[in-house]
Amino acid sequence: MPIYAYRCEACGFAKDVLQKISDPQLTVCLSCGKETFKKQLTAAGFQLKGSGWYVTDFRGGTPPATGTATGPAAPAPTDTPAAAPATGTKSD
């Protein structure tokens, strides 16, 4: 569900509101009551709902990877092709 930023042009009151895309825009300021409450143009914000990807799912377990290796290093891949095996033919 998107999070929209609203600001009152009369009193300057600002509030972030969690709304469905299909919900009508708010127009009445929650602070002064005037119909000057406008949706602001901001970076997209959203909230994930349902089972699955929550911040709390990974707390208390193993810490996330930090980008440093903790075990033995894997051998680096080589860019050179392997030598072709000899075919065993003799030339006279």
Protein traits:
three-stranded antiparallel β-sheet, elongated, mainly beta, Regulatory_FmdB_Zinc_ribbon, 92 residues, Zinc ribbon domain-containing protein
Q: What is the helix fraction of residues, given as a range?
A: under 10%
Mean pLDDT: 75
Q: Roughly what fraction of the amino acids lie in strands? A: 15-25%
Structural class: mainly beta
Task: Report the total helices.
Answer: 0
How far apart lie the N and C ends? 80 Å
Strand segment tally: 3
Overall description:
With 92 residues, the protein is mainly β. It has a domain at 3-39. Helices cover 0% and strands 15% of the residues. The protein contains no helices and three strands. It has strands spanning 3-8, 14-18, 37-39. Strands 2-1-3 form a three-stranded antiparallel sheet, with no helix packed on it. Strand 1 (3-8) and strand 2 (14-18) form a beta hairpin. The N and C termini lie far apart (80 Å). The model has no long low-confidence stretch (mean pLDDT 75). It comes from Duganella vulcania. Pfam families: Zn_ribbon_8. InterPro entries: Regulatory_FmdB_Zinc_ribbon. This is Zinc ribbon domain-containing protein. Residues 60-92 have a biased composition (Low complexity).
